[in-house]
Amino acid sequence: MRTFQLGALSALFCLGMMQAYGQKNRTSYYEIGGGAGVATMQTEVSNRSSVEAFYKEARPLGNVFIKYHLSDWFGLGTEMSYGALYAKDANHKKQSRGVTSRSRLFQANAFTEIHFIRFGKYHRENPFTLYLKGGAGFNTWDPTVETSVPLEEYYEKEVGAYTGFGAYIGAGFKFRLGYHSILSLELRSGGVGGNNLEGLRDTRASAAPGDDSYTSFQVSYSWAFF
To answer: Which has the closest alpha carbon to 112: 203, 188, 17, 42?
Structure first.
């Protein structure tokens, strides 16, 4: 998954640079904003996807960002985000183990963004656009684990603070509320660069190394400076 995310990010960056190349600087602009949404984690505990599990485990997150759009097609940016993550065995048909995991996740990422419909400066006639996004950066998390029954001997609790380098891919819609104001809806999936986001480590030799990941949905508001 991590290899796919990094590959997708590289492809987005190359495609965006090709689209931006040769465009006059008059189409460039800045965009500053913030957003809020919900996130879930995909780990040893939360390894079964379902609408019911998402509803029970979704927790809040928020972020702030700044973007520099080289053209009406392509932009670069940085962002910081902070949110809570939660997972429980009972929500994934594993009632007998009784693990509940909580973690806080902080991220600092750089990203690229590509529009599929001209958007931004001089394009007020286009009220919305679809975009793809890819980013990578620094992650830190601090899991805590609760158990109602003793864990199998091959599981070790890993609590405290951890860091990693992760990548993500995402997609979304932008809607123009005014000439400068923008509303965005975004779905993304990414890895954190570690295998203990939930606070458990499987010590068996047969255990898959993997990279724990998260999924988030976010609504954001931004202001474009032309």
So the answer is: 17
Q: Which two tokens stand for residue 78?
A: 């940085």
Q: What number of other Cβ atoms are within 10 A of residue 172's Cβ? A: 19
For 198, phi then psi, to 5°, come to: -90, -5
Do residues 101 and 143 touch, judged by C-beta distance below 8 A? yes
Q: Which of 222, 218, 160, 157 is nearest to 190 (CA)?
A: 218
> Cα–Cα distances in Å, from 206 out to 64, 107, 210?
40, 31, 12
- CA pair distance 13, 97, nearest whole angstrom: 44
| pLDDT per residue as tens digits for the range 57-104 | 999 999 999 999 998 899 999 999 999 999 999 998 887 788 999 999
Assess contact for 193 and 214: CB atoms under 8 A: no
* Contacts (Cβ under 8 Å, ≥6 apart) of 165: 136, 137, 138, 139, 193
Structure tokens, 151: 């864990």
DSSP-derived pairing of the beta strands 74-88 and 99-115: antiparallel
Containing 135, the helix (H) or strand (E) segment is strand 128-141
Of the candidates 143, 36, 31, the one whose C-alpha atom is nearest the C-alpha of residue 81 is 36
CA angle 53, 210, 163 (to 5 degrees): 90
pLDDT digits 0-9 by tens, 118-144: 998 888 889 999 999 999 999 999 999
